[in-house]
């Protein structure tokens, strides 16, 4: 019962990170769709490279001495130990949770799904789904074979 309550809390926590109707989600419909008749052009080079070869020494990334520069399309700032990148495409969306709160939620969720009862329930559920799929294959073997012959 306690594990079920923890899983319910995980579902409630998940709702914090979903887009709601009040938030404007970034849509890609604003971009022009690619059609077969349109020509493919190579993408422009980025205004800066996040890791230049001089910043990688012996397979390890050396600490960057200066921050990335703002571009016309993005605003980059350093807030609470995290780089925040704002873009006009994002609209007015802002995350409602802080970095610390996110990691607390992640820790609580990992603790909830790591319990033995949740693992055994998930394993039993997967075994049931596998048995249902095998039963489907046994019952519809001829239909599946004919479908494979029709669509090579």
TrEMBL record:
Residues 21-31 have a biased composition (Polar residues). InterPro entries: AMPD, Metal_Hydrolase. GO terms for molecular function: AMP deaminase activity. Residues 21-52 are annotated as: Disordered. It comes from the Eukaryota. GO terms for biological process: AMP metabolic process; IMP salvage. Residues 32-42 have a biased composition (Low complexity). GO terms for cellular component: cytosol. Pfam families: AMP_deaminase. This is Uncharacterized protein.
